[in-house]
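Minutes, structural biology subgroup

Action item carried over from last meeting: produce the structure token record for glutamate formimidoyltransferase (Romboutsia faecis). EB confirmed the sequence was re-checked against the source entry. Recorded below for completeness.
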Amino acid sequence: MNMSIVECVPNFSEGRDLEKIEKIVNAFRNKKDVKLLNYEADENYNRLVVTIIGKPQEVKNAVFESIGVAKDIINMNEHKGQHPRVGAIDVCPFIPIRDISMEDVVELTKELGREVNDKYKIPVFLYEESATKEERRNLATIRQGEYEGLDEKLKNYEWKPDFGENKKHPTAGAIVIGARKALIAYNINLDTDNIEITSKIAKAIRYSSGGYRYIKAGSVEIPEKKITQVTMNLTDYTHTSMYRAFEAVKFEAKRFGVNIIGSEIVGLCPMEALIDVASYYLGLEGFSLKKILETNLME
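Output recorded by EB:
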């Protein structure tokens, strides 16, 4: 019997207060037909990324509950962090996994957006495949000005939310909800504390300024380690792979005498993306999921 499965990766603007983090994550625990796959909090970003999977309506309901929790415990007027954000619950992407079309996931996001605004009075913007305007497909465009610039942004009729009035929630700001393909959140650490250099590297590789089609990139400082980070979203790893992003950063960093000292994946990563990396660096021929021991054990 077919069973529709969706993934959701809600991002919350809290990465430092463990008690608040647990309250948010608890909304996803012990829910029928919903599995909490992963959650990661980052102090510098001051951000929590949760990954869940399950039946569409049950996933939507769990996310709705978590938004209510976050709204009550996160005050954006006090929030400081390195990651761009527009609200206490910054973004909620839904990804079709099995036996569900992108069109059906878009409808699911619209249901959630309507319910969030009706109950919590948080203005909702739809993005990616759910976007009602072409200029709202890109999350970065919606985030321009961040939480601090929301009041001014919402004065413009062109930025009327998809659900709600042109007025931010007084403590939770706004929220961005949408349907999209799976992406990889991938960050690369550099042995420099010069954020201007890192910003130039990020600019060179991201699509919006002439780089790779499926790379969105920015720069972040990690002051306690005296390093900086190129932070990326690889929006289609089948066309722009992780190894290509890694090599592009290494190539651009060389001109500044800067080296890569490590990298990280935030959240979960498709196995195919790692197979692609292994095939490239090890020169493997004909390597695929069928060559993975654990994959064969699960069959």
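Discussion: The chain has two domains: 5-179, 184-293.
Next step: EB to file the record with the rest of the batch.
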